[in-house]
Amino acid sequence: MRAAVLQEIGQDKLEVLDDVEAVGFGPGKVRIRVRATGLCHSDLSAMSGVLPQPAPFVPGHEGAGEILEVGDGVGHLKAGDRVVVCWLPACGACPACKRGQTELCLAGFMNAGTPNFRRAGGDVFGFAGTGTFTEEVVVDAGCAVPIPDDVPFDIAALIGCGVTTGLGAALNTADVEAGSSVAVIGCGGVGISAIQGARLKGAAEIVAVDPVASRRESALRFGATQAVSPDELADAKQQVTAGEGFDYVFEVVGKSATARTAYDTTRRGGTLVVVGAGAMDDFLQLNMFELFFDEKRILPSMYGGGDVLRSYERTIALWRAGRIDLEGLITHRVQLSEINEALDQMRTGTSLRTCIEI
C-alpha cells in the first residue's frame, strides 16, 4: 500500500512509497482505511526533531476513515464503522484517567515506540503511535472513535487534533469568562480554533496575532475583533486594555520567545495558556519575583485539557448547530502524492489546514 515516509529526522521531504505494509493487527486492534487526514504543525515538528519520534516514520495523526477489520476482544466496533483516529487514547485505568484527567494518560505515548508499518528494509514507525499519511493503519481499538454518518471524513479528521486542541484550550483549560479580553498568538488551525472557542465563551475582545497577513484576515472571519502582526501587539495591548494586559493570552506557537511575549502581554492576575508544543531544550525564563508579584496563572493545555471523547462529541454538536465553522478551516486539498506541496503550504503559512484525501 501507499504511505508517505520520512527516512531520517531532519529531512524536509517525504517519500510516497507503495511498498509499505501496516502491521500489528491482532487482539484489541483495528485496521482502518484512512480516507482523509489533516496536516498539523506537530507533524513538521516531529520531522525536524523538535518533537521526539523514532525514524523512519509515517507522519500524520489527524485522520479519519472506516474500519476494515477488528481483532478479537473488540466489541464496540465493526467493519464499516466510520471513525476518527485518536492519537491520545485513554486507558481508563491509570491514575490520570481515574482522576478524570484522561488527556494526561500515557498509554498512547507508549505505542509510539512500537512500529506500525514495515517495508522490505525493516520497521517503520507511525507518528504518535498512529501515522495517518497512509492508505491503511493498524491501531489499538481505543484509538478508533466512532463518528456519526453525517460527519464528513475531512471534518472528522480535523476534530482528531487541531480543533479539539484549540477549542479545548479556550473552553476547558482557560474557561474564558464572558466579557473578557483575549489575545491569541499564532493563528493556524489550532489558533483559529482557540479564537472560535473564545468567541463561544463570550469574550468581548479577541486580538489575533500572526505574522502572515492571510492568517490575520482569516482570524477576523472566525471571530477575532482585530488582527495584528507581532510588531503591532504592543499597540493593541495599549488600545484594548489601556496597557494593563489581556485577561487571557493563548500561546499557540510552541517557542519560548512567544511564550515570554504572551506572559508579558497578560495582565497581572490574568491567565496565560500554553498550547503550542515546543522543544525539550527550549527553556522559558521567568524570575521568581515576577512569578510571585504578578500572580499570573500559567496553564499548559494538553490536547485541549479535557476528556477527549466528550470533546469530540461537543465539537460535533457545535458544528451541527452552526456555532463553529470547521469547513472554513480547510483552505487547501491535495492527494497523498502531493504531500510535499502540503508541507510547503504549512511552512509558509499559506494554509490553515490542508486536507490530504486518500
How would you describe this structure to a colleague?
The chain is α/β, with parallel strands linked by helices and 358 residues long. Helices cover 30% and strands 26% of the residues. It contains twelve helices and 19 strands. The protein has helices at residues 41-48, 95-98, 107-110, 153-159, 162-174, 189-200, 213-221, 233-241, 256-265, 288-294, 308-320, 339-348; strands at 3-5, 15-17, 21-22, 29-38, 57-58, 62-70, 82-85, 117-119, 122-126, 136-140, 144-146, 181-185, 205-209, 226-228, 246-251, 266-274, 297-300, 330-335, 353-357. The strands form four sheets. Strands 4, 6, 7, 10, 11, 18 and 19 form a seven-stranded mixed beta sheet that branches. A hairpin with a 2-residue loop joins strand 8 and strand 9. Helix 5 packs across helix 11 (308-320). The chain is globular and about 60 Å long. The termini are close together.
Note the main attributes of this structure.
358 residues; alpha/beta; seven-stranded mixed sheet; six-stranded parallel sheet; 19 strands; 26% strand
Mean pLDDT: 96
| Residue runs with pLDDT of under 50 for 5 or more positions | none
* End-to-end gap: 11 Å
User: For the report, how would you describe the main beta sheet?
Assistant: 7 strands, mixed
- Beta-strand segment tally: 19
Outline type: globular
Rg (CA only): 20 Å
- Number of contiguous helices: 12
What percentage of the residues does DSSP assign to strands (E)?
25-35%
- What is the helical fraction, as a range of percent? 25-40%
Quickly give the structural class: alpha/beta
